[in-house]
Amino acid sequence: MITRYALFQGTVHDGQTEAFRAAVLKELVPVWKRMPGATAVHVTFGDSRDEGAPEFPVILATEYPDMDAVQVALESPVRIEGREATQSVLGRFYTGVVHHHVTTAHHYQLQGN
Question: InterPro entries, from UniProt (predicted)?
Fold first, then answer.
């Protein structure tokens, strides 16, 4: 399985954390869930971090079965729509950068936890 991460490294404007999170869930997640070929979308909000670590208010992980599916998604009109929606939300609530990483995932289910 391939996971494409969007790492939102930066800060949410003061006093806007809840509004930012609500906008991500309402405006961005519906678009991200329509990415062609995606099998799962995980949206995580940063709550704490190690001292001195960079801040990641949001991390998006989108799973795909293979690199061909990633390529189809990257070339799709939904990606353009998602980019525009993301810029709208970020412009209102966020200062920082977004960078992407594509990884090969290995999952291990734990028994009894």
Answer: Dimeric_a/b-barrel (IPR011008)
3-state secondary structure string across 3-52: EEEEEEEEEECCCCHHHHHHHHHHHHHHHHCCCCCCCEEEEEECCCCCCC
pLDDT by residue for the chain (113 residues), tens only, comes to 999 999 999 999 999 999 999 999 999 999 999 999 999 999 999 999 999 999 999 999 999 999 999 999 999 999 999 999 999 999 999 999 999 999 998 889 898 76
Q: Total structural domains in the chain?
A: 1
Residue 91, domain member (yes or no): yes
Range of the domain at 79: 12-37+74-95
Helix pair angle (77-93, 67-74), 10° resolution: 70
Q: Coil, strand, or helix at residue 88?
A: helix
